[in-house]
Amino acid sequence: MARLADYFVLVAFGPHPRGSGEGQGQILQRFPEKDWEDNPFPQGIELFCQPSGWQLCPERSPPTFFVAVLTDINSERHYCACLTFWEPAEPTQEAASAEDAADGEEELEDGGRMRLSPSAPAPASQLFAPKTLVLVSRLDHTENSLGLIYTVHVEGLDVSLESVIGNLLTCTIPLAGGSQRTISLGAGDRQVIQTPLTDSLPVSCCSVALLFRQLGITNVLCLFCAALTEHKILFLSRSYQRLADACRGLLALLFPLRYSFTYVPILPAQLLEVLSTPTPFVIGVHAAFQAETQELLDVIIADLDGGTVTVPECVHIPPLPEPLQSQTHSVLSTVLDPELELADLAFPPPTVPASSLKMQDKELRAVFLRLFAQLLQGYRWCLHIVRIHPEPVIRFHKAAFLGQRGLVEDDFLMKVLEGMAFAGFVSERGVPYRATDLFDELVAHEVARMRADESHPQRVLRHVKELAEQLYKNENPYPAVAMHKVQRPAEASHLRRAPRPFPRLDEGTVQWIVDQAMAKMQGAPPAVRAERRSTVPSGPPMTAILERSSGLHANSARRLEVVRNCISYVFEGKMLEAKKLLPAVLRALKGRAARRCLTQELHLHVQQNRAVLDHQQFDFVVRMMNCCLQDCTSADEHGIAAALLPLVTAFCRKLSPGVTQFAYSCVQEHVVWSTPQFWEAMFYGDVQTHVRALYLEPPEDRPPTQVGEALAQEEPPSALDVASEQRRLWPTLSRAKQQELVQKEESTVFSQAIHYASRMSYLLLPLDASKSRLLRERAGLGDPESASNSLVTNSMAGSVAESYDTESGFEDAETSDVAGAVVRFINRFVDKVCTESGVTSDHLKGLHVMVPDIVQMHIETLEAVHRESRRLPPIQKQPKLLRPRLLPGEECVLDGLRVYLLPDGREEGAGGSAGGPALLPAEGAVFLTTYRVIFTGMPTDPLVGEQVVVRAFPVAALTKEKRISVQTHVDQFLQDGLQLRACTFQLLRMAFDEEVGSEGAELFRKQLHRLRYPPDIKGTFAFASGATHTPGRPGRAAKDKGPSLRTLSRNLMKNAKRTIGRQHITRKKYSPPSWEHRGQPPAEDQEDEIAVSEEAEPSTLTPSAGLKPADRLTLSSLVERACCRDYQRLGLGTLGSSLSRAKSEPFRVSPVNRMYAICRSYPGLLIVPQSVQDNALQRVSRCYRQNRFPVVCWRSGRSKAVLLRSGGLHGKGVVGLFKAQNAPSPGQSQADSSSLEQEKYLQAVVSAMPRYADASGRNTLSGFSSAHLGSHGKWGSIRVSGRSGGPGVGVDVGSRLAGRDVLGPPQPNGAPPDSGFLRPQRAALYIIGDKAQLKGVRPDPLQQWELVPIEVFEARQVKASFKKLLKACVPGCPAAEPGPASYLRSLEDSEWLTQIHKLLQVSVLVVELLDSGSSVLVSLEDGWDITTQVVSLVQLLSDPFYRTLEGFRLLVEKEWLSFGHRFSHRGAHMLAGQSSGVVPIFLQFLDCVHQVHLQFPMEFEFSQFYLKFLSYHHASRRFRTFLLDSDYERIELGLLYEEKGERRGQQACRSVWEHVDRLSKKTPVFYNYMYAPEDAEVLRPYSNVSNLKVWDFYTEETLAEGPPYDWELARGPPEPPEEERPDSSAPQSRRRVVWPCYDSRPRAQPDAISRLLEELQRLETELGRPPERWKDTWDRVKAAQRLEGRPDGRGTPGSLLASTVPHHRRSLGVYLQEGPAGSTLSLSLDSDQSGGSSASSSRQAARRSTSALYSQFQTAESENRSYEGTLYKKGAFMKPWKARWFVLDKTKHQLRYYDHRVDTECKGVIDLAEVEAVAPGAPTMGAPKTVGEKAFFDVKTTRRVYNFCAQDAASAQQWVDRIQGCLSDA
To answer: Most buried residue, 891, 1069, 1104, 1450, by most Cβ within 10 Å?
Structure first.
């Protein structure tokens, strides 16, 4: 409650004490006479009663009334209501006035003060003196009361004036809250007093509307801005009430800000000198004194009567920021003139009545309220709550507010925020827990609405009216009441002669009334106003007032991406890439978003407040930080310096042990660090964070409910929320608890002050304390503007210090000076913030003591940093070592040795013809692992960028190592270099860095040599990496009888060694392990259990004696080998048929070599003619090199001709064979006997052929004479074939076969002539032999075989050719003459393609012979090199099965592995083979296959990559497949049966085939999509050199990730860029630069089908379905393609090929580019087409095997899937039908179901043992609609009934039958 009035005062005219003509006011009486304790009597009232001075009047004036406002020392306003009336002057008063009449006249002439009376007083006339009744109140409700007192006096009412005044002084009314109080002063009056609803909202009545009417919109806006920006404002008017109203109206517009400067609505004339005060003011002065205001130069004068506002030239009033200025102006005009909008309408609507003046007043105020809400929107987000208890201390972060609102440059808002009014606003409204009002609601909840309404004037107006209603309601909470009644004096009562002057009142009576009331008040309980306090809503986060693009530096997403990329390059160590991007980044950092992005990205790389960088990284980070800070203003509006502050103390680099340099030492030269306001804002922000954390941890003694509430909040509460909650709880806390909280907060502030003292010393103390320009400026010695122009661009702190010096222009100063300046700066800061934050004086003193120590310690630290930083070399050359990825089991032997990888003559790495940058030379490191030599590094050319260069090759592929000395482009001379060349066509030409030294280089060479040539095969990677399984195996239990395979093979070897070389054969019997024991470990201590019986008779070798069961089991393991599987496929007999001597079969499988006794390099089982006994084979074998006698390796399915292979003939054997006409006699030598055996053997081979078995007569070709041999002199030498020789009549068949140009018209491209070129009489068997062995030999014309001696190249020639090929493709040094000529010349010199040509030519001839029905024996060299190449190629060309993935595997296993190609010897795998060097026979064969593949791309199931993969890994020694020289050696090591016999756990694949299988399931990389073979197609490729292409395996290189053949190490295709940054809103590009010299183009851009399969897999993953196997998808698409190809959907599929490619082109080789391009895809899809005729057996076998290779991945129960398919199953009660994949398992007697076909996790099992019945079902609710009724069936178990639904009735019946079949089987 408050008193209605504090004092009643009666003031009258009195003479001036100094006798001047002016009178003065005298207080006649005042009530109460004693001052109130809470409100002392205001001084100077008499001046304000008559502001223009006390003067006598010649005539009686009507009473006047106005309210003057006095402000006391506590900024409390006192309203002085003054009612003045005139009474006849007393004689003393008149005399006093007459004395200075003359003076008055002079004054008038001088234009001085005007009297109220128009003429000078006449001495004779009556004068009137003014008398004023003054009511002093803190409330503005006193108008009626004074009028009532005057009425009582004038009208002479019968009421005691004392009692009226006593009642007036004792009347109390509620302060606020919208209460209504009816009072009576005892004069028959009734007054209704309404208090406003909210105290904080100003009461304006009509003052605002009047102000606008008087001055207009523009002028009022001008005054509004002037008042907010603290200018001096002076109102002039002839009316005191108008002055008071204008001032009140202006202040009402300023709400929610309070005007806190001089506020005098009515200024007395005696106090006019106040107008010269330097402080801002709002003052009203009577217009009579206008002349005195002319001299005021900086005062804005508003003439209310004239409607003008005069702004002096020297005053600049900043306008409101646009668009708020124009928006406000337009809304104001609409409010003041509602008809403005309708003025132009042709048919205006009926006018709406204008608002009343009071309502218009509120509408105008509402406009300004909206304006403030828009201006200050989000202000609560910039409040820093520094203390919560005992009272909240709140600071406003102006810079952040301006930055986030986008008004940094705005003069108006800047001044408003710096003004006193706003400071008061923050302290009053920043409090988090208080009563809220209209403005709080508006700024929190209506911002979005105001933003949305901006462009809709009607909606804005509606909002304004809504707000006006609330403002009106606040002032007038109740409607006007009729019973309000106050007496007024009669009209012109002042002209009546008053019966008496205003009487002197009785003080005693008044005082007694007051005392009585006081006594009552003391007895009554004190009325406490209950404030409804709550948490003040913060509202939405702030947004910019106007989204302005910053012109030139608008930050596009691309710029931010550049910044992010640069930073990621820096931290990944890709310095060259970062260097390229840096200029763009520095340009981008001019923009705010990029600077913010930089700070965010850098924060990600700081862990545990520390990030140690290398020198180059440090340099880049510092440069970017400096660039950021360069454009920061001293206020740091955008928080960039604030975000960098924690970072500059986090990023550091090690200069030397114990000396660390932090980034702050290099970013000091920015003006922001010397700005106290910046440090204060940072300090308050951090304090707020810590204070908030103090209360966020739930204390133990907090009630559990509150903890629960805290946890329930989704977002962590803001600091203001926390503070609000704490303020709410504060009164409820105990005194001790309150003290504890206050102490905790104070300690938090104190600790932060210490922390900031350290931080400030970091950024203020320069690295070299003697040189600091900036500090001197900070100490007030320099020009602060120039401080932000420096940019530190070098990481060298020494140069930073120098830059301070060079730019400073000051002489050196003592360190103490600098330290003193810093100490003073920090102390000033500490004083200010600690005083404001309420730190205790003890703590503050402690801080003052601490600061100098902190500064001194930091100076000492900096000395060491400065010293070390000057020692840093200028260039940090070492990039970070990039560690390579390793395979499982691969271990690093030598860690990275720094090297430079030099260009080696290949154009791609140096840019060259392929385009792209010069990636070499590159700087990096070489790593030596147990498997590879790896170089990883980056190009030294700074323009290239950060592409990681990787070059690697398997250690086993090393062919040559050469020391070199190199002078690189780098300054240092690198004394030591090494050139390593690998047979996988990689070359490392390295120069060792000086830090490696010659010892390091030598160690590298030794280790490399040791790994390259291990003494034993066990030392190779394939063995070493998987060797962990052997130790610690438990011994076998005693009851195991069967020996393990390893024991078996060991004993087999012992005995084989004994028997080899004896005249007669030793027989050995042994028992192999049973299958169930195969997987068990070998018994280490078990003796050989195999009994060896030696029998003297050679006849033991004949199988007629029968094999013992043990031997059969031994052989069963041999049957598992690839060759036996292939023999069965070809119908060449099985082991069983050979034992049962089925005479109908011409050939049999002979186990004669199962002990590897006859020929160690042959497989254990061989195909020989049925008629030849095993014991004869021993003798036959002696005629051939290495005992490799002729055996059958393939039979043509069509002509039944067979292909045989053997070693070359021993000279004597051949001579004996061809010279001896008769059978040898018993006395002949052993050699003759064996020759006879050989002849018999060959005869048996011929007899075994069905076509020649019963024929008689000469079957050889005629004209076979040595004369022709002599004349040509080359016997079909392939070396000169096609180059010489002319047509002849009797040319022998050898000539014809070998030199085709004599056969008639030659064919183009070296193709063979028509198949009819051979005469009808052909030999049954052609022996392709080496010409050197058959020199001078004359065959017998009666024999049925014919000899074709040819001249072939030897292994050493292959080796020499390969060396030259390596040098041609990987030169080792840049070519002298650039261009393709030198490369082609060296390629020709290598003769590699010539050798390929010869191999293909011989193979095609053999294919022709076999195709025409003659058998062929290839008997060249030792039978394991060229023979293997030719035999394999012939089979590949003749049999489509070998062109499938499985077939090719079988071919390699059979012809190369089983028939003993010497992989280890030819690859120089061991130390023993080091001298022989690498002879890549197998690589040459693969090159031939590649040439055929190129010509027949649709005939091969495997891709070119498959061939490259095998080429790489046959030399890599990663897998055990291509190790050792024969099956015999593999058995000796226990390898041959390891895959079958011993199941290992999860470990790396040891077999290359297993690896291929695994990869094929994941990716189609080995599969050829063009595969669409013709049945039984025999390929006849062109073989001329002009038709051959250099294999890209030799020339291509991927520097991005090294060779792509170790698939696990490949990075995979790049992710689509969208997924890289899902959080960034910027659009990303799908484009990617692919460099041919760097990237693997097929992987960067896979073929269309691979891409589609990948896309399918991605979509399946997105949809949540497990991806289907690629092979299933592919096969399904092919099947659909074939169906579409049929015209009616039935019948035999026609060949898509026939229409597009002519048949003869196909058989002679089709280049894809020559065929029609459009048919490619349709051809490639049709892989399963068979012609009209049924496929041959081999063809079907090929189909089966292919599908087996790519079979659908099966789950663990795959072997138990008896029947499977999709069924709909009805869920349990009230659940829907769902499609599931059901599997019927007869073995486990179960019906299992899965979510879908490839799901590995079983979702449920129905045990068939529980099934009682299976019956047809009926459809239930929710069943699939499209299915017939008969498709439903039920399975009833003992537990429940399962409802099923199949696709149709037929499949339902099938399921029922199957399930019942299972039940009956059980």
So the answer is: 1450
